[in-house]
Amino acid sequence: MDPISNLAVPENPSKVLEAQLAQRPDVQDLVDRNIIKDPKVAPAIQQQRDELEKRKIQDSLRHKIDHRPSPEVLVEQNILKDPKIAPSLQRHQHDLERNILQDKLEHKIQERPNPVELVEQGILTEDELPQ
Questions:
Q1: Which sections of the protein are RPEL repeats (predicted)?
Q2: Can you say how many angstroms the Cα of residue 17 is from the centroid of all Cα atoms in its chain?
Q3: What is the 3-state secondary structure (H, E, C) of 79-93?
Q4: In the structure, how many helices (H) and strands (E) does the chain have?
Q5: Nearest to 33 by CA among 25, 42, 43
Q6: Which pTM was predicted?
Q7: Angle ∠(91,81,101) on CA atoms, nearest 5
Q8: What is the spatial distance between Cα 61 and Cα 125, in angstroms, rounded to a whole number?
Q9: What is the pLDDT of residues 97-122, one digit of tens each?
Q10: What's the rounded Cα separation, in Å, for the pair 60 and 41?
Q11: 70-84 b/e with 16+ CB inside 10 Å = b?
Q12: DSSP reduced 3-state for 37
């Protein structure tokens, strides 16, 4: 079977074309969606505006790159891992630090005073005791 013979040809192509042309978006809509350039502005001005916008973006990116923090600062802020530690050991170091912190917190929770001791120390009043 011929694939071209399966294509449906409209009986009145001019009416179909007119219907499609009637539904197409207007020029201002196409300009707003950046599909076409504004026909009211001269092409030379459009080109200069585009180049200016491109340079503005380049300058902004260059400024951001020039003022980005150093790797040492990023390590201090815990954004980057310390490059002095081998990657295979970094995970173990992280787990160890986490376990140490967890142990410290558990110890602090176990050693915290009970409500009666807080009343004796004058931190809580009798009314504030949990029931």
A1: 15-40, 59-84, 103-128
A2: 44
A3: CCCCCCCCHHHHHHH
A4: 6, 0
A5: 25
A6: 0.44
A7: 60
A8: 59
A9: 999 999 999 999 999 998 889 889 99
A10: 26
A11: eeeeeeeeeeeeeee
A12: coil
